Amino acid sequence: MLPRYITAVAVAAQIAQCNPLEAHVGVKVKDFPRGFRTCVFYDDFSEGKDSLPDPAKWTIDLGTQYSPNGPAQWGTGEIQTYTDNHENIHITPHQTLKITPRRDKHGNWTSSRIETTAEWDFSCQKGERVRVEARIKLGGNPKNQSLGMWPAFWALGSEYRGNYWNWPAVGEIDILESVNGERKLWNVVHCGTNPGGVCNEPVGIGHVTEPFEKGVWHTLAWEAHRAFGKRQESMSWYLDGRRTWTLWKRDVGDEAAWEAMAGAGKMLLLNVAVGGGFPNGVAGITTPTKDTLDGEGASMEVDYVAVYKKERW
User: Fold this and answer.
1) How far is 23 from 238, CA to CA, in rounded Å?
2) Strand (E) or helix (H) holding 282
3) Exposed site from 64, 116, 142, 245, fewest CB < 10 Å?
4) Contact assessment for residue 71 and residue 44, using Cβ atoms and an 8 Å cutoff
5) Mean pLDDT, rounded, of the chain
6) Burial 214-223 (b: 16+ CB within 10 A, else e)
7) What is the DSSP letter of 202?
8) Three-state SS for 251?
9) Domains of the chain with bracketed CATH
10) Beta carbons within 10 angstroms of residue 50's beta carbon
11) Quick one: which H or E segment has residue 255?
12) pLDDT, tens digit, for every residue of 195-217?
């Protein structure tokens, strides 16, 4: 079942967009991944060049926090200001989305972050299987000139909207995180209480895949498997069609935490942060540095984002 607040007309239009079509960079996009027959969200950023993402699907986050009552620096210590300026975010002539961090002459950083609107929240109930997928390319600046760069594609419990202090209990799924120009892909989940808890917060439970090449296109995906009966529930991450990590419900061992991560309503986010606790921790120093480059080589480009669902398996 789709969320009840999606209208029949919107659903029909959205499913139509999931039919086979030509990718904007020359690769055939399949209408459905193997085993899936329903598409509940799809965006291939086919708006006109130099435009912003479709406001019916995406909200552009602005500033340094959600609201004066929310966590400063987005709760992570990142130092950039998010904007909707063309130099930070736009649809390219190839009909891809590009997010680009910039540094001004005073050393101040800007970037962009978007999240799906509430209309397109999705969940994974008992007996369902959900797949979140995107095709993404990260900029190829040298590692020693990428300290502080923190691109991400992730899902966050939609109950975070309007509260902003219920993380990590709402659940977070990081499908792509890569920091400091490392040839590494981090997959991480956050849940429960902070600090500590079943997800070892604020670090979370994670897996690192390497090598993860920059400057080339990758297909990244996350699946939640919530079968009926005695089959064990799990979540799996995929890179270019290869499963890289599976987290089982028994590994978490907490019903509420698992439900928040695997089942509850979620929104999707795309952003490139600059600095913060994660890149600082990996680098062992405060980032970014004077040598960190902005621009094209620090960007994240997105071909499409999709959410697929299979019921009663």
Assistant:
1) 20
2) helix 277-283
3) 142
4) no
5) 91
6) beebbbbbbb
7) T
8) helix
9) 38-310 (2.60.120.200)
10) 10
11) helix 255-258
12) 999 999 999 999 999 999 999 99
Q: Two tokens at 267?
A: 């929104």
As a whole number of angstroms, the distance between CA 112 and CA 114 comes to 7
Lowest-pLDDT choice from 16-20, 219-223, 271-275, 285-289 = 16-20
* Length reported for the chain: 313
Q: How far apart are CA 150 and CA 147, in angstroms?
A: 9
What does the alpha-carbon distance between residue 108 and residue 119 come to, in Å, rounded to a whole number? 34
As a whole number of angstroms, the distance between CA 85 and CA 313 comes to: 44
In DSSP terms, 129 is beta-bridged to: 225, 310
Q: What is the pTM of this model?
A: 0.91
* DSSP label of 72: G
The pairing of beta strand 109-111 with beta strand 81-82: parallel
Contact between 145 and 292 (Cβ < 8 Å):
yes
Task: Return d(Cα 285, Cα 295) in angstroms, integer.
Answer: 22
Give the span between the Cα atoms of 231 and 50, in whole angstroms.
48
Rounded to the nearest 10°, the torsion over CA 269, 275, 277, 280 is 140
User: Residue 261, Cβ neighbours under 10 Å: how many?
Assistant: 29
Yes or no: say if 215 and 140 are a contact pair by the CB < 8 Å rule.
yes
The token pair at 222 is 């996350």
CB 2 within 8 A of CB 8: no
Query: Which residues fall within 8 angstroms of residue 178, CB to CB, at 6 or more apart?
Result: 138, 150, 151, 184, 185, 186, 212, 214
- Give the tokens for residue 242: 């290869």
